[in-house]
From TrEMBL:
The keyword Transport does not apply. One of its GO terms (molecular function) is DNA-binding transcription factor activity. Residues 20-87 form the HTH gntR-type domain. This is Transcriptional regulator, GntR family. Keywords: DNA-binding, Transcription, Transcription regulation. Pfam families: FCD, GntR. It comes from the Bacteria. CDD domains: WHTH_GntR.
């Protein structure tokens, strides 16, 4: 029986990592590998194996894994430890419903504090999205657009929860956006939303965001229902 290659072999460490940067470098390296699919769902993140790979002690590895777990990129499984989380959970409808609540509140709090620079940044991201053809980059830019609008919300814990949801969506969009055909619709929604935000129309902006996320939830739900994939196969 042919043995499956170890996904960690896709990660190359070309030079020693300074001790004071170890946690951040490990976190960023693993995060990128998870997001671009080199570390698929179900991949076990064993501390000693990672410590050997990065040439560090287990302490910065443990800290990096905790950060990735907090970002919903890893799950802790009994008798297996930390594993790469699914692209999107089975309860995606519930996840989106929660995102609508959290992001609506973040937008409501942020709009009065947004300045011209924030609006210009969001507009530039939309322009970049309309030019971009790489779906990995589209997923990243989509996250940055939403965070540009929410970023002035004073509740940092709320923003952290919001960003976790956007991280999960970014992973999913990287692999499935083309098949779902959301691109043009999303950019029209983004421009409408930004126009209302720029005018400080809080209630109208929140309603537009709600409708935008509802459309996304409906498309993703239909798409997931059409697939017959079992993420557990990747864990075998």
């Amino acid at each position: 029986m042919t043995q499956k290659p170890n996904p960690l072999s896709s990660i190359e460490i070309r030079e020693p990592i300074p001790a004071h940067l170890a946690r951040a470098v490990i976190e960023e390296t693993l995060r990128n590998a998870i997001l671009d699919g080199r570390l698929p769902c179900g991949t076990a993140m064993r501390q000693q194996e990672l410590a050997s790979l990065f040439g560090v002690s287990r302490m910065p590895v443990r800290e990096a894994l905790r950060q990735l777990e907090a970002q919903s990129l890893l799950h802790v499984v009994t008798h297996k430890g930390a594993v790469v989380a699914p692209l999107i959970e089975d309860n995606s409808g519930e996840t989106y419903a929660l995102r609508i609540l959290l992001e609506s509140e973040a937008l409501r709090l942020s709009i009065p504090r947004l300045n011209e620079e924030d609006i210009a940044q969001a507009a530039a991201i939309i322009d970049a999205l309309e030019r971009e053809t790489d779906y990995t980059e589209i997923g990243r830019l989509n996250r940055l657009f939403h965070m540009a609008l929410y970023g002035q919300a004073p509740n940092q814990r709320l923003l952290k929860l919001v960003e976790h949801g956007l991280n999960e969506e970014e992973r999913f969009l990287r692999f499935n956006l083309e098949a779902m055909g959301l691109g043009e619709t999303s950019q029209a929604d983004h421009r409408e939303l930004l126009n209302l935000v720029a005018q400080k129309k809080v209630d109208e902006s929140v309603l537009t965001l709600h409708n935008h996320l509802m459309r996304g939830m409906e498309v993703i739900t239909l798409y997931l229902n059409s697939l017959k994939q079992d993420c557990d196969k990747d864990a075998v």
